[in-house]
Design goal:
The protein is α/β, with parallel strands linked by helices. It is built from eleven helices and five strands; from the N terminus they run βααααααβαβααβαβα. A five-stranded parallel sheet has the order 3-2-1-4-5, with helices on both faces.
Amino acid sequence: MIQAVVFDLGGVLFSEGKSVAIDKLCRECGYDRELLRKVLSSPESIDLRKGLISDETFWSLVQGQLPQSYDASLIKKEWYDGYVLDEDIFALIKELRGKYRLVAFSGNVRSRVDFLERKYHFRNLFDLEIYSFDYHHTKPEREFVKIMIEKVGSRPEEIVYIDDNDTYAQPARELGVQVLIYTRGEVARLRRESRERGVVL
């Protein structure tokens, strides 16, 4: 019997902000796509998600890696603004409230979670939040999934975990968690697959 439903944030509850931001910055500012991908996926960006370096340190490092005409503060703004609420997932979560333990599980940045909370007031949807910056682990690290399972307090097979990235979700699958991969706009398929896993909607 399913006890908990776990949701990723970027790519599930929100659009995947990095891709949205890169597209906009390339289109409107002429920034180099590969350079943006490099700095936003750098080892330092992973340290930021893990809470090992501060926002100030990270964005100072980013500015130092960019051409003089690039603005790191604009990149940060567009990166955060790129996370747009998925109304279908928002409705699904509200529908599941009170039926299951609802969990946010995200390799995220503290300041971005704060930004999204101010904009969308989403955190009260969840009974439990597990963020990379609190545990110094992030996706796709197996240890991060073990932390999630421990904090949820259910057996892996009693957990349905929804992510948009199959690679990031693979460790959860290997540990026995029931994984569903969500593609934006395909909430009908997600609902069908959730029911097949025993989630009552």
